[in-house]
């Protein structure tokens, strides 16, 4: 028979454990409510820059009128485009117009975060996550299937290039993330991500990475965090595919935009007919000088650069690439 004093100790221990459990549960509930509130606030900070007919209810047609005259697309879009841009950035605003022309021609809704909600580069995770959650709450037939995220320092060179060109075929349903690599490793300035719960898990884990790994140096911030997660976690790694950089993340060629740069590998440089050109690491004071020649080419709509898909070689190249990717076990 237990001694009364021992019983009191047990009761005290049980009460303490219950209190700790209650506190943990309460904290989790509070965090969930905070997360939903944060996401609701986030939805108010981005708008759809352009959208086909089905998206007109959430578009802002008045602001769009100064951008382009929308072409009516009656087919449910498969891919949406996501970016972030705020403040006074005339070079980036000019570059964004090249993406808007692409959306106008091919019917891709374009989402833009207009105000920061997190620190610096981490806003990328926030805006993509918010669009993902918005799409996942819709009926399956009404959802976008993929999102293309692009940094503001990109110029869309070929508005005739369908984003569906680069997507994995139906027999690879386990592939959820398409990335590319340069000499520094993975570059997340432009990538494609599937509208899927897996993607929500990856982006939330990426955002939380510096909190749970405070002693890990993240040289490239969110990019390093995502890269580490993919390396360290088989669940994320097996659904990620690294595609050739030129597909959707090509880098600049010569400063004039016309010639190849002999000091850089040709397969990393943008070629006529390619989707876009990305300028990672360009100093703010050099943006106009560096992006200017490429924006001039894009704005002139030269036939050499705005090739139809069938003239680019990407139909065969992407087909051959995906044939080399094994389906899930």
TrEMBL record:
Superkingdom classification of source: Eukaryota
Ranges annotated as spanning the membrane: 25-44
SUPFAM superfamilies: Nucleotide-diphospho-sugar transferases
GO molecular function, one term: glycosyltransferase activity
Record-level GO BP terms: protein N-linked glycosylation
InterPro entries: Glyco_trans_34, Nucleotide-diphossugar_trans
Gene Ontology cellular-component terms listed: Golgi membrane
Keywords from the named record: Glycosyltransferase, Membrane, Transferase, Transmembrane, Transmembrane helix
Family note: Belongs to the glycosyltransferase 34 family.
Protein name: Galactosyl transferase GMA12/MNN10 family protein
Protein's organism: Blastomyces gilchristii (strain SLH14081)
